[in-house]
Amino acid sequence: MKKICQIYIPQWYRSFKNHTLLEISNNLEYLKEAGFYGFYLIGLWLDGGYDNGFDIVEYMVNPKYGTTSELIELVIKKAHDLGLTVGVDVVPNHVSYRNILAMECLSRTPGFEDALYVVSKDEAEELTKAGVPSFFGKQAYSLVDGKYVRSTFVDNYQLNVNWGNERVQTYFRDVFKKLRGYGVDFARIDCGELLFEDVSKADPKNPLACLNVKASIEAVASVADGMPLFYECFFPETAKLMEGMPNCYCLDCSYVLTGQQKTEWEAYSKLVPLVGGHDQMTAADRGINITETLEKMETFEYGFLDMQTLIAHKTNPEILDDDWNYDADLKNPNQRYRARREIKPILEEFKKTTE
To answer: Which residue has the higher pLDDT, 154 or 162?
Structure first.
């Protein structure tokens, strides 16, 4: 198995502040020694401060973590010299209300009028009543600058973009071009299944009824210019859809292997199990047997996990089955990640496992 290590930047920032990228660079040798094939950086980009790095204002390095030159010179080039592959997070479902796509749409700039899903107050109420879902927020349509806008995450601070708009496609095409210029090898696609909806099919009893997963994953692939994409997936059907799609993988939380949605995945060549993750959800919440899952992961081509999961598995595996990633308030989107322990003591334990 090719192990890919998640590096959640805000967790490192708790220990290293504006030297975050430098300290990541200083610890890459340990990833190599621990047998990792590569890593991906999550929470790296300039954000609006409302969803722990996922309400992206711009796909540029958040200045509090370091600079673009540090990302390229200290992290990516050094990783490549060590033989490590490097990935980053891309969030195509939504942007910060301060992102250029949102601001241009809300100001009615020609060509951007439908870059977001803007509806009237009556439409917002009718669609919400019909069952159009808000997956990680309180409301499906949020009031922003006097307009009602489709939102699936953290309400009016994160706004869904319309991939039927050419400017949206161009924006993300330019994002992937920029990442290639940085030397990035692959991208983890956050919420890549949730781009296209047919709200006429909304069903209060089935929040997934209005989604077009196939169109969603194909849309991102069409602008990525062949870059390998690991889609964070919520639906088992996604693995089937990707069978014929080159460079596209179904990155699925490990409960499909041993937990609540346990199923047989041997037939799906594109499945990539994810253990650990940034969202703090405990193993008990997902019904996961972590030890069994890590063993099953060895049969797959790729496996994504984080340092503390690997450490605990090597040193004290039983804690994973009771309290996977420590405390968090899952009902409060802006607190889901802040409970994550700072990385410095975890690094110290991690280094011991490589000695």
So the answer is: 162
